[in-house]
């Protein structure tokens, strides 16, 4: 990864970002030794599609504005600071869209760590149900087995990003036909402004014979799990910051 | 206004300037061959689900403090308690009838029971980024966990 070169009032060279560019440096300490916050104003045609931006980022030289450069010149940069390139696109006078290219993180010797506390605070389901724009969504399957045609066992993941935060559901679901349904859910909910992520873990299971007939053979997992007996219910706060 | 921007399929998005979120998707682990063998060796078992998406991952990183939440199949499979609590492992609905009709079949005794339902209590792993000295970034393959 070539280092970016920055001169206040001059030009900025954005290093080519290739497809395989990895998020974090493979070897500690062998990455950037300097901090770059690069703010670019561009005169490109406004566009919501990423391609012109990507094109712009690959080895282009752009006139540089003064934003962010003072921090760079002062040299007083906290080593934990992450490095990014910011491109401001002014689409109209009232809206500035910033694109971030994350280039890596500077390393520091004092590492932070997660702090886990159990809590009574419940997931705010109302907030999660609220209509919000989905900024990012993905669904993943980690494993699946049809139990030799005797049912199903799956481990799946869903992630959803909204302006208010992000939400993750990791679900282990297992059904042995005519015998048992088991569902272990782990939910992570982060709300912007919080210093923690709320994590909820629930183990549910019931013999199928104990379920009402309409739930015995339905494929609607979400309706079935409300009928299952809860055996374990844990709530934890995962703190990633010490303050507030 | 913050906009999430995904540069390509495997590139992270930066959320609110604070979190990096990335997912990787991959094909099913082959049912045989060297990759499979390595996977089974690392998990010390060949009792594995039919479909394992070994390259599928979700990674959330708190950028400033380098804290990570990681989800992958390998760690989830490692959390399966294959041989303990055998009496709690469900049996298929026909098992009783089947077992009764084969009481003389001594072969039954030769199979070591295991959790064929692949029940995992895996919650994902939270860890400190760089906690392991030998980690490679990107890729999304098997990561050593320090759960």
- Note the run of SSEs of chain A as H and E: EEEHEHEEEHEEEEEHHE
Which stretches of chain A of 5+ consecutive residues score pLDDT under 50?
1-110
What composes the largest sheet of chain B?
Answer: 5 strands, antiparallel
How many distinct beta strands of chain B? Answer: 6
The chain-level mean pLDDT of chain B equals 76
Helix content of chain A: 10-25%
Describe the oligomeric state of these chains in a short phrase: heterodimer
Give the N-terminus to C-terminus distance of chain A in angstroms: 36 Å
- What is the molecular shape of chain A? elongated
Alpha carbon gyration radius of chain A = 24 Å
Question: Can I get a quick summary?
Answer:
By secondary structure, chain A is mainly beta. Chain A has 5 helices and 13 strands. The longest helix of chain A is centred in the first third of the chain and has 8 residues.
How would you describe what is shown here?
Chain A is elongated and about 50 Å long. Residues 1-110 of chain A have low confidence and may be disordered. Chain A has a 7-stranded antiparallel sheet, with no helix packed on it. A 3-stranded antiparallel sheet of chain A has the order 1-2-4, with no helix packed on it. In chain A, a hairpin with a 5-residue loop joins strand 8 and strand 9 (151-162). Chain A is mainly β and 244 residues long. Chain A folds into 2 domains: 5-105, no CATH class; 115-239, no CATH class. Chain A contains 5 helices and 13 strands. Chain B has 147 residues and is α+β, with helices and mostly antiparallel strands. Chain B contains 3 helices and 6 strands; from the N terminus they run ββαβββααβ. In chain B, strands 1-2-4-5-6 form a 5-stranded antiparallel sheet. In chain B, 36% of the residues are buried. Mean pLDDT of chain B is 76; it is low at 1-9 and 130-147. Classes of the chains: A mainly beta (244), B alpha+beta (147). At the A-B interface, helix 1, strand 6, strand 8, strand 9 and strand 10 of A face strand 1, strand 2, strand 3, strand 4 and strand 5 of B.
